[in-house]
Amino acid sequence: MELNEGKQERYFIVVRRSKNGLSRGSIGCADAETAAGDLIGMVYGGGGSAKSSGTVKKQDTYPLTRHQAQLLLFVSPASRRLELMCNVQLFSAICALAQDDLVVVKHKKDFQPCLVKNLIQIGKKDKPGVLQMLGFELDLVDTQHDILSKTTVPLPFFSAADIVQVAPSHLNTRQPLRDSVDLGLKRKAVSRINSMPALNSRNAKKGSIILNTDVSSTIQSLSHSSLEVGSMAEVISLNGLTVFGVIRWIGVPEGKRNCWAGLELDNEVTTCSDGTFGTKRYFTCEGNKALFVPLTNCKPDSRFLFIPNEIPKPLEPLSVTLLEDLNEDVPPVAEQDVLSHLIGRMRGIQGHFNSCYLDTTLFSLFTSSVAFNRMFSTSEDSEEGISNILRRDIVNRLRRTGFVPAESVMKFRERLGCKSFATEEKDPEEFITLLLKQVLHIEPLLKIRSCGDLAQGAYTHQIIVEKNQVRAVPSVQQLLEMSFVSSDLKFEEIPSCLIVQMPRFGKKFKMFPKIIPSTELDITDILHCSPRECFLCGHPAEYECVQCLMDHKLQPGKIKQYCITCNTQVHIHSSRKEHTPQKLTVPDHLPEDAPVQRQQMQLFAVLCINTSHYVSFVKYGPNPRSWIFFDSMADRCGDDNSGYNVPVIRSCPEVGDFLSQSEEEMSTADVSQSSEMVRRLLCDSYMCLYQRTE
């Protein structure tokens, strides 16, 4: 075996589980490299001591400097190391921290501003096979009184992962700390550099030191000077809860002396307005979402970690595989985790360049449903093939982190086999057919028999009805049954997933102003060779009559199938003598008293369109109120050239409340009095997605 010796130490982090058992996040040091590209060296365990030695594939690792390796080695558990590295700007800023730099850390379930006091080397120095870990010694800062707290209980050493924000780079002019600071954790005499001013002031509290003007102003700049109109911010409300939103207005409102901010919140709060403060309107938004507070009460949204005073951008990870293990499929987001994991701005799939049709379709298919997971196991694809890109870069990332950047989606679009899918607007059904049939080579989801002929495959079903065949506000159940019966169609078998297109032509013309998306779809009566019960007496049916479908004396719009006796009696009537009932194909030797098992499918997503823009509603759990709304281009930061779209996910339990009503109540409801989410669902529905209940 030929070896390439390297003089310099080559540190790395394992980003993909290796065959020899190395877990993701492990830190190692390579001594040599084989001609085949394998790294030979050791992997460090707890305390920085060598845990094991052996080989690891170079493609399963990511290179580190010694300083980065030491900082990451102090982070626990190992998975947090990968999460930290994926925030490129933050990790780079942490690696360059200098003494007296200002940072924000998560301490005792709260976020605290601190000053960097020292870089601490942890572990036995100069011992062979030991890599000393690096942690930070920090001092807490009280921003309300501009003091450096001298707590009686010493603070723990903080790891790099404890730091969630770093002061603006132009305010940090000191030299970065490096491991030349020779300090040991277990030494009693620790040489600490004391650079804080010891000022004797009458205003100084006992046990505290007043901060100098530069540090105090830096703290304030970290808190709010970087905020402007369009910034994502957070505010702690009077009841102690943190609310998030976008700053829509900054200025001095009537009756106030200081600068205030008007925020449009992510979620409704009953005490908020629609953009008015006092008697004056400062901006316009949905009701109960406008909050006005002093600007000093706002701070950058902690959910999006970036260095203040720099243009916020969706951060591109160092490597896609840092967060996704190619050999692990991530399950759908659990119902109890959706609100904390998905709701908010910069959540979901980020839209870019006419991609809303694709973003909403993928979000609907994969966020909470398992109906399409089988496509990955049935598609044989290379590591960089399109199915692996879809699974790794989009589906796994969406389910694990709650956000997919536009770059990942564009990489997928460029491999769809047609250039227009990367640049032009498309329809969801066109994308679904291409994805399943031509790219992933999946068998048709639907097998439909027409006029007794052999079954034909399809991926979606377009509802075709006459307007006078159903009520003014029809349900998907009524539309599907009418579409099948009037065209003499039957399902050959129960589909695992049913994608139904609403009766509309193009993006503008809608046959019905409102359509009720049935939460459960009963397909029992449109299944071929399936037991059915008589419409009148409930006994096993043997005949079906299409002409009776719209009979005003027999519940018009309901499918009519009869047993032998009822079929004879119904068609004795003079108005029905010309009807031609058809013999049903039913299973042989069916017991006469056998109950008919209803075959139902469950609604899990609705795609909507308005003015050429697609959005989606997704049901994420069995609770009737578990509904979320997704828009991949809900907002935009920056201009058309250098900006980016902001995807938003909102919780909309009111949709579940509305759909829990009876069909009669929903069809007669005044939609103008309903919430915006309910109106969009009923008036803009384009495609409904159903899956088998089991």
SSE blueprint and pairings:
Blueprint: E1 3-14, E2 27-34, E3 38-44, E4 50-57, E5 61-64, H1 66-73, H2 78-86, H3 88-95, E6 102-107, E7 110-122, E8 133-142, E9 147-149, E10 163-166, E11 208-210, H4 213-225, E12 232-236, E13 242-251, E14 260-265, E15 276-277, E16 280-281, E17 290-294, E18 299-300, H5 338-341, E19 344-345, E20 348-349, H6 356-366, H7 374-378, H8 386-401, E21 403-404, H9 406-413, H10 428-439, E22 446-450, E23 456-458, E24 461-462, H11 476-486, E25 489-491, E26 497-501, E27 504-505, E28 509-510, E29 520-522, E30 543-544, E31 561-562, H12 564-570, E32 582-583, E33 600-610, E34 613-619, E35 627-637, E36 644-651, H13 653-659, H14 663-668, H15 676-683, E37 685-692
Parallel strand pairs: 20-21, 24-26
Antiparallel strand pairs: 1-2, 1-5, 2-3, 3-4, 6-7, 6-10, 7-8, 8-9, 9-11, 12-13, 12-18, 13-14, 14-17, 15-16, 19-36, 22-23, 22-25, 26-37, 27-28, 29-33, 30-31, 30-32, 33-34, 33-37, 34-35, 35-36
Helix pairs in contact: 8-9
GO molecular function: cysteine-type deubiquitinase activity; metal ion binding
EC number: 3.4.19.12
Domain CAP-Gly: 251-294
